[in-house]
């Protein structure tokens, strides 16, 4: 992976030495290069624009939600995917335009649906029959109308290079296409005067490196729409193909450029629309990881170094599974560097350990690095998605701070949690 390095051999992020940021804000520290975020967002938006295709690129805020990132997403013309009251609340606090917010979730609560309807959000991606009942009642009560997409399971599951075709999709999300479930749901919402049935949604997986899974899913959804037109005269205006566009965590990862994913989707939808003589629907996508993943770097300070003779050297840092649970949860792989030793050759392999009381709290196994000393600053790359978003207080570690860097300027956008904040919710027990 390419990293900016200055003439002193220092890692630079957005034209600022990473160790300077660590010095000023403390570690562990999430640092985002905002220009990278903007470039990713623009790659999607521009490709749809250049091809004259109506589209919404909805940032999946589950990847990283905070007021500042949602402000950047809005500045770049993105829409927003939220999956909870908390994510919706953050969007409202960030001043995100409500009409560009889409709500997801396989078990939306009455409160969540009421909040979404009350705030006139742009679209609800309806997931199940229970939700349809709740939504219909809330819309009648609030005397409101709302756009919905039906989430369907197209029987395609994609992960990196592999995609699996399953006849009957075994998933907690969405309506099954093959059993007629999706069609029953369609009939239910289509007849409701408070609901505008905008189209279909699917999400086939995460960290996908090819376009074929997306193309297959598009064909499945489009065929369904064609059948529904024949049977009911219905024409959809939106096809939402979800997120899952892959990013580079390590040298081994070879994702496509974002405009390549977008172009493949555009081609498939255009081809199908002309093949079936179907009005070209808007294409919506929901990238999370692809927008923020590579833009984020976590900086740690090296503490203890333990040699297990002839086996390995454990280097412990001041964070770990509390700020990045992905290695422990998914055996996710990352690359790292020493922020002040970017021009030094690797000395040997080290294993980077977190500081939680848990043997599984290892960030990286066997990574070749220059000689590591106590106090060195270690950067772990591509931590921008599902890092802060999945941070936790295990062992009562504080949630780390987040800094945005752009054009040589840096700004704190999420404060480090204090211990007072951590115990604020605790009440003493009176016997
Ligand atoms: N849309 C829907 C309906 C989704 O379920 C997801 C992710 C996305 C969009 C965004 O996917 P992305 O473009 O970020 O891959 N915690 C896991 C990832 C879980 C993703 C769940 N849904 C991780 O750390 O890899």
What do you see in this structure?
Pathway: Amino-acid biosynthesis; L-lysine biosynthesis via DAP pathway; L-lysine from DL-2,6-diaminopimelate: step 1/1. This is Diaminopimelate decarboxylase. Its cofactor is pyridoxal 5'-phosphate. Its EC number is 4.1.1.20. It catalyses: meso-2,6-diaminopimelate + H(+) = L-lysine + CO2. This protein has 431 residues and is an alpha/beta fold. The chain has 2 domains: 5-32 and 293-423, Beta Barrel (Lyase, Ornithine Decarboxylase, Chain A, domain 1); 104-286, TIM Barrel, CATH 3.20.20. It has 12 helices and 24 strands. The protein has helices spanning 18-25, 34-50, 67-75, 85-93, 110-118, 129-142, 181-190, 212-232, 258-275, 289-292, 326-330, 419-423; strands at 4-5, 11-13, 16-17, 29-33, 55-60, 79-82, 101-103, 123-126, 146-153, 156-160, 162-165, 175-176, 195-201, 205-208, 238-240, 282-285, 296-308, 312-317, 336-338, 348-353, 362-369, 377-381, 401-406, 409-414. Strands 4, 17, 18, 19, 20, 21, 22, 23 and 24 form a 9-stranded mixed sheet that branches. It has an 8-stranded parallel barrel with strand order 5-6-7-8-9-13-15-16, surrounded by 7 helices. α2 runs parallel beside α9, α5 (110-118) packs across α6 and α8 (212-232) packs parallel to α9 (258-275). It is globular, with a radius of gyration of 23 Å. Residues 60, 63, 81, 104, 203, 206, 242-245, 286-290, 326, 385-386 line the site of ligand LLP. Ligand LLP binds at residues 60, 63, 81, 104, 203, 206, 242-245, 286-290, 326, 385-386.
